[in-house]
UniProtKB/TrEMBL annotation:
<feature type="signal peptide">
    <location>
        <begin position="1"/>
        <end position="23"/>
    </location>
</feature>
<dbReference type="Pfam" id="PF09478">
    <property type="entry name" value="CBM49"/>
</dbReference>
<protein>
    <recommendedName>
        <fullName>Carbohydrate binding domain-containing protein</fullName>
    </recommendedName>
</protein>
<dbReference type="InterPro" id="IPR019028">
    <property type="entry name" value="CBM_49"/>
</dbReference>
<dbReference type="GO" id="GO:0030246">
    <property type="term" value="F:carbohydrate binding"/>
</dbReference>
<keyword id="KW-0732">Signal</keyword>
<feature type="domain" description="Carbohydrate binding">
    <location>
        <begin position="180"/>
        <end position="269"/>
    </location>
</feature>
């Protein structure tokens, strides 16, 4: 089935399912997705005569947020992106023109009571899901555009993967996991206004036999301020402990047997511990 037929059938199924919606979303309807499992989410919306289709994965973790949050950058394709197929037919939903609508983990948040916050390429949208079924919800955003969400316990992979690519798998590593190691060491120290500051270099090493697509870390590190960490993105605010971090949106992967470097500034010379909350492998 080509991309256009797949999207068309999928949209039709969503609207047929709409006949069974329960009405106003409540915590009871969405609560099944707040059990700590990785949730596959698909989003469809219509804008300016085009259909956009987003897929990705979200997670609820009490340590990080009370909401479902984005754990790896969602992919989006649009009917306005047209390419020529091998048979020389014009083909909408070109998978060679995939966009990344969300820049970080907090760019898509869904609460238990159906409140949605989305930041799509700098445009902030906030709205309430108005109609829900056990696996689908619909809400109209403050830009007057309806968004349809489809929830599943099956994780989504990326658009455009070849048939030989394996699916994305997210897991919570066991304690003392040796497949991924995180270390840090002091590279600089100075004193300002009688306060000592320490600059660390951190290294994430992928010793597994899989490509890391995304990573969520937890640490009680006391940063100098919110801007004092780079090449990692903080998910919660500086007042919440432990702090949680993820890879920046521009980091697509950590390859097998490779190292990823980040840095931070603290007020303590003690090496902080970074624990792995979840990891998504390719």
């Amino acid at each position: 089935m080509n991309n256009f037929n797949f999207i068309f059938v999928f949209i039709c199924l969503l609207f047929l399912t709409n006949r069974n919606v329960h009405g106003q979303c409540s915590s009871n309807v969405l609560s099944q997705y707040f059990n700590g499992s990785v949730i596959g989410i698909k989003v469809i919306y219509f804008e300016s005569g085009s259909v956009s289709y987003m897929i990705g994965n979200s997670l609820y973790s009490a340590q990080i947020s009370s909401d479902l949050f984005n754990i790896n950058s969602f992919n989006s394709i649009s009917s306005s992106n047209v390419d020529c197929s091998r048979s020389n037919n014009r083909q909408p939903f070109d998978v060679n023109k995939v966009s990344l609508p969300f820049s970080d983990a907090r760019s898509l948040l869904i609460s238990r009571n159906g409140a949605v916050s989305m930041n799509i390429k700098g445009i902030k949208l906030e709205f309430q899901l108005s109609y829900c079924s056990s696996s689908m919800a619909i809400g109209v955003a403050n830009n007057s555009i309806p968004y349809t969400f489809y929830f599943s316990f099956n994780q989504n992979s990326q658009f455009g993967l070849s048939c030989n690519d394996t699916n994305v798998v997210t897991e919570t590593p066991k304690p003392n996991n040796k497949n991924i190691t995180i270390s840090s060491n002091i590279i600089n120290q100075w004193t300002t206004n009688n306060i000592n500051y320490y600059q660390f270099d951190g290294i994430i090493e992928n010793k597994s036999k899989k490509v890391i697509k995304s990573l969520i870390l937890s640490s009680s590190v006391q940063l100098r301020d919110d801007s004092s960490i780079w090449d990692l993105v903080r998910i919660n605010n500086n007042n919440q402990q432990p702090s949680t971090f993820t890879l920046p949106s521009y980091v697509n992967q950590i390859a097998i047997d490779s190292k990823y470097k980040f840095g931070f500034i603290t007020k303590s010379d003690r090496n902080p511990t970074f624990n792995i909350v979840s990891v998504t492998y390719q």
